[in-house]
Design brief:
It is globular and about 65 Å long. The protein has a single domain, classed as Up-down Bundle (Amino acid/polyamine transporter I). The protein is an all-alpha fold and 457 residues long. The chain has 18 helices and 2 strands. Helix 1 crosses helix 14, helix 5 crosses helix 15 and helix 7 packs antiparallel against helix 15. The termini are far apart. The longest helix is centred in the C-terminal third of the chain and has 35 residues. Helices cover 77% and strands 1% of the residues. A hairpin with a 2-residue loop joins strand 1 and strand 2.
């Protein structure tokens, strides 16, 4: 089998890829969204359905995207172009790589702003300024942050510099060194917080909320929600997993590694949920969804608990780490393309890309206050103007369509021989089952995700 060589280098081991891919998958939204969805839609019943959806949508596309990356050994745009040429297909497939790469850059621009909030709250929590904060006070603090463009710009800038610093150092000294340090720390922090929540929170009620199986809540809406989260949780569709796959050594099993990444992502989200809801329920607070839970409800709870400032700071440090590992995955596809296409060094490529994302982030900052306007999309009213437009463009349109294209390309355009050659075991039952799923089931499921995202179903 002919092996292409990546000019960017390779992961030193299978473990490094697992840590990097898990870091990409575990993000801010996953930490607060999946646990809440689990509790709202039937607990253990929802988890069971979610795992089935993960097997039918998330994992098959993850395997396909990583396989394409390792087969092409280049940035997503050039990997799509090369693999299309190998298959004798139209070169327009590279547009999928372009769309995903640009979506990743746009997501990074507003993701960095939200990550900046976690930095701000890390400082506030560590300083003790949130001790005994009231519900009104917590709401006021968050509102003041969001309505202050200069403060948000400062934190956004700091986080973007952190991201550029890592990505400019390359695969070995940058990406790998970062995940080698950040991911073990993330797991250690999560374990400490689980123990703290077990001792000082209402762990029993949190467990009941998240894992008590109530199959009556498995409505069609719940099934579609599980399907959608199974797709979005693994960071597929933006080229991040493809470019990480380009650095994966040939001897590593893509299928086994991808399954492990998906399971680790799920375990981290569930453990984070136990931490969050144990602390929230111990103080009879609302288990709300989204930023309100993290930036308004939790500070109230931590502020009333023994050692709350210290452990609250650890929690926001955990969020900073999850945001950091995700952001370096979002920026890497564009940086690798610049290095390949423009023949520039990684430092300049990282700075240029970071500046573009930073400038787009200013649009998000202003959309949350002075530039805000409301509009309706998919039957829902949106209040944050251009920020919501960018979110809809990426999360509701580009990502699902990108995932659909990956499934169709691998299942119907690439030759079966090329696919089995890269994955190994073309005659095994596991390969045949995955190949059937990625050809016939996954495309239909992802199409449903897209139709739900735009409000059609």
């Amino acid at each position: 089998m002919y092996q292409r060589i990546s000019i960017h280098g390779q992961w030193s081991s299978r473990l490094m890829f697992i840590l990097a891919a898990t870091g990409s998958a575990v993000g801010l939204g996953n930490i607060w969204k999946f646990p809440y969805l689990t509790g709202e839609y039937g607990g253990g019943a929802f988890v069971l359905v979610y795992l089935i959806c993960l097997a039918l949508v998330g994992i098959p596309i993850l395997i396909a995207e990583v396989m394409m990356g390792r087969r092409g050994r280049q940035s997503p745009v050039f990997s799509w172009q090369t693999l299309a040429a190998d298959a004798g297909a139209n070169g327009s497939w590279k547009l999928v790589g372009w769309a995903g790469m640009l979506a990743g850059l746009i997501i990074l621009s507003y993701y960095s702003v939200i990550a900046g909030w976690t930095l701000a709250y890390l400082v506030r929590m560590a300083s003790g300024s949130l001790i005994r904060v009231t519900e009104e006070g917590a709401g006021s603090i968050f509102t003041q942050l969001v309505m202050d463009p200069e403060r948000m710009l400062a934190w956004h800038t700091i986080f973007m510099v952190m991201t550029i610093k890592v990505i400019s150092r390359g695969v070995k000294k940058g990406l790998e060194q970062a995940v080698r340090i950040l991911m073990p720390l993330l797991f250690a922090l999560l374990l400490v917080l689980v123990i703290y929540a077990w001792r000082h929170g209402d762990f029993a009620q949190a467990y009941e909320f998240m894992f008590n199986s109530d199959f009556s809540k498995l409505t069609p809406a719940a099934l579609l929600t599980a399907l959608g989260h199974a797709f979005f949780t693994l960071s597929v569709g933006v080229g991040a997993m493809m470019v990480y796959g380009a650095y994966l050594p040939s001897r590593v099993s893509i299928a086994k590694t991808s399954i492990l990444v998906a399971l680790l992502d799920t375990i981290v989200a569930l453990l984070a949920g136990l931490v969050i809801f144990s602390i929230v329920f111990a103080h009879d607070l609302a288990a709300g969804d989204g930023p309100g839970l993290i930036f308004q409800t939790l500070p109230i709870a931590f502020g009333q608990m023994p050692g709350g400032s210290f452990f609250g700071a650890l929690f926001f440090l955990l969020l900073v780490f999850t945001a950091w590992t995700s952001s370096i995955a979002l920026i890497e596809p564009m940086v690798s393309w610049l290095v390949e296409k423009r023949d520039v060094d990684r430092i300049r490529a990282a700075i240029w890309t970071g500046i573009v994302a930073w400038l787009l982030g200013i649009v998000t900052i202003l959309s949350l206050n002075s530039w805000s306007f409301s509009f309706s999309f998919g039957g829902q009213l949106k209040h944050h103007g251009l920020f919501d437009v960018l979110d809809i463009l990426t999360s509701s349109i580009i990502l699902p369509l990108g995932g659909l294209c990956v499934a169709l390309f691998v299942g119907w355009v690439m030759s079966r021989e090329s696919v089995s050659e890269e994955l190994g075991g073309g005659k095994s039952i596991g390969f045949k089952l995955w190949y059937f799923v990625v050809r016939f089931i996954t495309p239909v499921a992802v199409l449903l995700v897209f139709l739900r995202a735009i409000g059609v179903v």
